[in-house]
Specification:
The chain has 103 residues and is mainly α. Helices cover 75% and strands 0% of the residues.
Length: 103
């Protein structure tokens, strides 16, 4: 599991955000309460401008570890562009999460 998490983080830093989300999804499927994976998934989704899904991931991380300051900051950083997009009609997210693909 830690290999998937590390790979997801590396892919994030390489700006391969879709692959990063996929790796963090794998970690979450194996360990649903791994808060760090939820938060990093949210960071990748935010880079893909999938702010609503990113915010849900950040909220899940905070539900698991409510006092984690890094998670709180990541949520703030996700919420700011989302609110701006709501005002300016940004294009919607082009990346489809696993949940959306199953609809």
């Amino acid at each position: 599991m830690s290999g998937w998490f590390s790979r997801g983080n590396t892919l994030y830093f390489l700006k391969r955000y879709e692959e990063s989300v996929q790796n963090h999804d794998k970690v979450i499927s194996l360990s649903p309460n791994f808060a760090e994976a939820w938060s990093e998934r949210g960071n990748s989704l935010s880079e893909l401008e999938c702010y609503e899904d990113a915010l849900k991931s950040q909220d899940k991380a905070l539900a698991i570890k409510a006092t984690n300051q890094k998670f709180q900051k990541n949520r703030e950083l996700t919420q700011e562009p989302m609110l701006q997009c709501q005002k300016t009609q940004c294009p919607s997210c082009a990346y489809k999460t696993k949940e959306e693909n199953n609809k």
